[in-house]
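From the methods appendix. Each design record in this collection lists the tokenized structure first, followed by the designed amino acid sequence. Records were kept in a plain field format so they could be parsed without special tools. The example shown here is representative of the layout used throughout.

RECORD:
FOLD TOKENS (422 positions):
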């Protein structure tokens, strides 16, 4: 297919996703537990936007003519890398699928994609829509299965030319190892995080609380970029804790299909138990539990929105990824100090800064080692914004033109030029 034709087919898939939005959103909520208002209002429309935006690159990626130091004509050609594979997680099932499949297909690759074992349903639905949209057989292959079997087989396959993975740092390492031990397929890794949100005392406390709550509690806390270390400057610390706890207490937790519900259950029993374990460790290590801390009811994996104050840098809840509705608040004095502490992590996915001082915002955004810095906002994601991690949060960038180039090879073509000025 030409790039333009691929673009057309992907736009057709986007049309079908819009037509079936209600069903897709309901399936996503059934599978994952996120509030229907989120699936319908954010995950689905957001995925369609990403798909349409990336589809537009189909006929817009060209190579260069190169100025060679001799009588040669030379140019570069972008070619699809070949068979691409993707292994995705359960926290944003449909969005993760589109973030990987759209750039691969628009680049001209085929794709084998393994959804997470917890949430395979919307991926299978998309496979049916892909067929209807005119994506030829064998081009987008949805292969549900478990990680250590299906996932590992994909990662070590000799005929897979590229792999893109989103999930834990631990499994990311296994993916890279499998690539190294098989055919050295290039890897794109989007891994874990322990993102700092730095709140300076000059800021408005209500805005700070708003940003912190969104940063941490969004998607039941199941976000790789969650603001899971909230550093608050001493002048605002007590008031922030009081207001943040009050806001957490007022969150509406319950049946994700019910209108007005802000927080559904955690995705499964494993995650649920892991999060309750972290809450216990916060208590035993001496953090101050301000609100929450327990499961809600007897059925389902519902956890109270939880806030810990007086968290210290060496506590487990300040070091490890919790992936749940547990806010950890740490106190700081000076900017130099907070930069050091914020960077003292193996992760580097995202960071937030809340301040009205432009110089502080600029200084901090250059000092924090993370792939995305949100100033006076959080979780802003857009197909135009490259996304990925520093350090052990990943390799490569997704979204934007960068994403499409992940699935392309760059070929250099050289030929002598005779009897002609060069
Ligand atoms: P999480 O902790 O968020 O569930 P994981 O990294 O365990 O994240 O899982 C993300 C994805 O990686 C899932 O699709 C899962 O099936 C897959 N996976 C898990 N283990 C492996 C493995 N050994 N090899 C390849 N894929 C794996």
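DESIGN:
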């Amino acid at each position: 297919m030409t790039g333009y034709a691929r673009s057309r087919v992907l736009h057709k898939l986007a049309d079908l996703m819009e037509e079936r939005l209600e069903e897709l959103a309901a399936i996503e909520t059934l599978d994952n537990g996120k509030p229907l208002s989120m699936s319908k209002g954010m995950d689905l429309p957001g995925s369609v936007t990403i798909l349409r935006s990336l589809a537009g690159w189909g006929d817009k990626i060209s190579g260069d003519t190169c100025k060679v130091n001799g009588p040669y004509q030379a140019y570069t050609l972008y070619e699809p890398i070949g068979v691409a594979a993707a292994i995705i997680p359960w926290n944003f099932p449909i969005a993760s699928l589109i973030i990987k499949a759209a750039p691969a297909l628009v680049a001209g690759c085929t794709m084998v994609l393994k959804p997470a074992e917890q949430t395979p349903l919307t991926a299978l639905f998309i496979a049916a829509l892909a067929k209807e949209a005119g994506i030829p057989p064998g081009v987008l292959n949805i292969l549900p299965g478990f990680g250590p079997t299906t996932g590992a087989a994909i990662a070590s396959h000799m005929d897979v030319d590229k792999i893109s993975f989103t999930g834990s740092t631990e499994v990311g390492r296994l993916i890279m190892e499998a690539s190294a031990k098989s055919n050295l397929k290039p890897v794109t890794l989007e891994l874990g995080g322990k993102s700092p949100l730095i709140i300076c005392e000059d800021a408005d406390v209500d805005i700070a609380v708003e940003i912190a709550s969104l940063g941490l509690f969004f998607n039941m806390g199941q976000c790789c970029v969650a603001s899971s270390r909230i550093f608050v400057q001493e002048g605002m610390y007590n008031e922030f804790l009081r207001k943040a706890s009050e806001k957490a207490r007022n969150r509406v937790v319950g049946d994700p299909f019910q209108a007005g519900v802000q927080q559904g259950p955690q995705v499964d029993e494993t995650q649920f138990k892991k999060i309750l374990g972290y809450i216990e460790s916060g208590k035993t290590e001496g953090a101050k539990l301000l609100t929450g801390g327990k499961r809600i009811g007897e059925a389902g994996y519902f956890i109270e929105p939880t806030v810990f104050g007086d968290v210290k840098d060496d506590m487990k809840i300040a070091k490890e990824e919790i992936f749940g509705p547990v806010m950890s608040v740490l106190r700081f004095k000076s900017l130099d100090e907070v930069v050091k502490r914020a960077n003292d992590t193996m992760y580097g996915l995202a960071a937030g800064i809340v301040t009205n001082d432009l110089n502080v915002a600029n200084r901090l955004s250059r000092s924090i080692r993370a792939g995305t810095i949100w100033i006076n906002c959080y979780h802003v994601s857009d197909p135009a914004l490259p996304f990925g991690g520093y350090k052990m949060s990943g390799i490569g960038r997704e979204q934007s033109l960068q994403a499409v180039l992940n699935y392309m090879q760059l070929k250099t073509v050289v030929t002598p030029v005779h009897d002609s000025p060069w």
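APPENDIX NOTE: The pocket of adenosine-5'-diphosphate is lined by residues 87-89, 114, 116-117, 146-148, 151-152, 155, 167-168, 171, 174-175 (CB under 6 Å).
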